[in-house]
What does this fold into?
Amino acid sequence: MRSGESTVTTYRQAVEQLSVAQKPGRGAPPYSRWINRRLGRWIAAGAHLAGRTPNQVTMISAALSLAGILIVALVRPQWWTGLVVAALLVLGYAFDAADGQLARLRGGGSAAGEWLDHVVDATKICLLHSAVLISFFRFSDLPHAMLLVPLGYEAVSSVFFFTFILVEKLRKSAGRQAHRGNEAGSGLVQTALAAPTDYGLLCLVFVVFGWTPVFATLYTAMFAAHGLVLLVALARWWRELSAGGHSS
It folds into this structure.
């Protein structure tokens, strides 16, 4: 057994240990903060007792998400397709939250595991919006200009994901990550402002995927809000890193 690895033997012990070891939620988007991390905790506890590894959990997450994405791209929207897609995406996201928690429960993750997790996340973002574009093109009577929405959403989501991961790495290398996590307050304002970037909320939007006009309206609103948050975040991160002495 590796040093620091958990010796819990019951599901309840695993959940309790994960609750104590939970990453700070300050400023995280609402669904991710209050729902998905809890779902991930339950899954991680069960996976630990079943002897699963974090990488195996990551691949289950990828498979569930891919199944939902394929339905979006290949199946004509109906009332039930949205429910199935949303369920698969939500489950995939919950398993995505579980792999890191399982790694902590087992005594720590690996660089390869973190890399795999980020690769799956980046791929999932690109494929999901590409699938929406394909569905709009194949199955809907929406104006052709609507095809620009998933194309733009893919760009905004990918840029946000990359820059967020990068700024976290730069903070860590500058020794400022701990200070950020210990800021006073619960971060409820930041959580509310981060809602448009919440992948979990986007998953729930797919519940109405079978009603194309309704879905297109909500999807476009999420895209516009996400784009606005990206612009604000880029300006904030640039000021922060410039003040910290980073330069290209």
